[in-house]
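Help wanted!
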Amino acid sequence: MPDRSKAPEFQIPDHIDLIQPRKWTLKNGIPLYYIQTDTIEAVKLEVIFQTPLKKIPEGKGLVPFFTLHMLLEGTHNLPSEELDNFFDHYASEVEFISSFEQHGLSLLCTAKHFKDVLPVFRSLFTEAVFPKKELDTRKAQKKLSIALQLDKNPARANQLIRKALFGSDHPFGFIAREEDVDEVSVEDLKTFYQDNFLNRPELFLTGPLGDDQVTEIMKAFEDLPNLAAPIHLLDYQFNPNEKITETRAKSVQSTIRIGQHLISKKHPDHHGLMVFNTILGGYFGSRLIRNIREDKGHTYGIYSSIGSLNPTDYWLVMADVQKGFAEEVIEEVYKEIDRLKSEAVSHDELETVRNYMIGHFLSSFSSPFDLISRFKSIHQHGLDYSFYEEQLQYIRKFTPEDVLRIGQQYFKENFIEVVVG
Amino acid sequence: MIPYQKFTLDNGLEVLVHEDHTTKMAVLNLLYKVGSRNENPGKTGLAHYFEHLMFGGSKHVPVFDAALEKVGGECNAFTNTDITNYYISLPAVNLETAFWLESDRMLHLNLSPKTIETQRKVVIEEFKQRYLNQPYGNAFHLVRDLAFDTHPYQWPTIGRDIDDIENYQSQDVEEFYFTHYRPDNAVMVVAGDVTLEQVKHLSKKWFGDIPSGNMPKKSIPKELPQISKKSKTVMEEVPTDALYKVYHVPGRLESGYLEADLITDILGFGRSSFLEHRLVKNSDLFATVSGYVLGNVDPGLMVFTGKMEKGRTAEEAEKLLDETIAEFIDQPIPEPVLQKVKNQAEAMKTYETVQLLNRAMSLAYYAHLGNPDLYQTEYVKKTAISGERISEAAKAFLREENATVLYYKSNT
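Answered by r_m:
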């Protein structure tokens, strides 16, 4: 009979391997980053470009979106249907990569079919033809999805908080309307593809490939044009303290968003903010979950998170709550922030969050495809692995005073609030 | 193939060990053979609600998550019609904590009134978030209710309605626990940087003294074959019409299931699928379409669903879907199409097994079906099925008398 009243002994992992990719450079200057994982029979190749962030000309906000999503709709050699058959025949998955600052395509393929699939995947970047018929189909789908986004409270709330944080002229704050779909023409897509799409390409590769196979990939991409348009950092237009409410009588819940801008990932306080955010709403044991879900039962889930962008990070609280309780929940969020600013975190909670974060850190460096993601998220911000080493050090060492200071310095009462429902 | 070793404790707990020493993590996946098919009318959603209660602490563990987080672990769970599956992922050096936590909540869960009432509210909010506050969110409530007359698959795992969730009494909860949450009704998979000897020792130590169940499980009502087409029309504030057409198909291990699975692989999987090509790309009726089987243990459903383009109706869409399916049944399946779905079945196994957690879950799932080797043998069986057999099965399943249709219409 075990003594169940005593928790088993435990250890905190002291050494964590930060597996890094090898870098290769193609003739045209494009870098390729490769993590070799011999235990899996799958290959993942991502080709990622820097999105040129420009002010959106009126009505043309969806041109980048359609350019990307039309790449599989036909090339000079293969019409849409044959492309689909080709990739599906080899059970390979081509996915669109589309974030605020990057766009591109990812290919997931079995190792044994990779060689066959590579040339056709490569052709998507320079041989796409943007046929009208297929564009019309994608346009109809996009209109439906825009209508659905408007109908879904959480999606609508995301639009509104992005607009409030970045301004509607900025690509991050842009809200697509059905009219914007009509404005997009085949010519627009061809021009964007030609002039702006292939901006500062980088290749990210994971799989069980030998050097000769990596060389094949390099050869395939060494004639890819490598545009180097300057990256503009557009200013955000936003009003701190903005409160937006969209009332929907028939909704049975209210969607809440609270947000603000933070600091750049390069700032030394970034690690402290990550810890603060985790304690507040970043894991299941967080203050927000304990209070709003596990004590009051007002929601199925409430979380806070930090989003990373090159100029600056931003911070968000997200929840769908019981109808009629939005105000109360927002008040409780502020109370929890105030508590973290005024009362030191207990030894017990500190130990829990510290150990949780170390375990989570180990776990995030454990699965093959995660390794390249860890690399991308520092690399795309101009950081190296010392970022992770410092982060881990910070997690091991932070004190209750650190948490208090971060709260006092970065969580002052000028949050943007959105309520939909 | 996912390599594993296996043993069974005297109390009936089946344990599988999957060693992977390329990672420093471990996974403990505990599957209970209970889902919404084990529920009764009026008390639907109980299996899923009970999953929430399992995180409410046990006799020696006041706060489940905190105890796990303290050793660097994370956990979650899901419930479906057939199973409830709990998983813990943690640094392998702390594996014993996972055993302590899982065994304590199997042995004596804290069913405190506070947890029972708060989780009732949380689950009601989950119900609203996922099914009521979403365009088309209640479609499968309506489809299941219409398609099944007697089998509990007639309600979704979240429950038939909020009233049912409000109705659970503490006696229901206790009875459910003592009937289903017993070692002889569970499969445990321990995977990652662990060894067979270590898992044997820990399993005996922490689970060995938990008594087997002594409350019989109730038998599940069988669904009789459907003899005529059923349909229903609803008008809702949604952007466009949607069509849901479903057909009864055999259960997971019954003859004909793999053929049904192949039919939807051909018709509905991927950008090159027959339906995507015919209905979305080459018509202006469907904006989206998909086809799949639900994969239930008991006889379940083959589903075809799509959203219409603006101004087009679900009735028109059904007509085109029917014509397209008729054409599929009448024509022999081209060899390249067969080869494609077989390549896909093979590749899926590669992709799915990249993550340690997925490997553990697959082993547990197939062990619950009867044998972990089914993971491999089912794949071999599936990829050996001929085009003629697929066509015959399509003819047998895709009949109007066997169909149920929901016209989910836009009134805006």
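OP: Thanks! One thing I noticed: Chain A has a mean pLDDT of 94.
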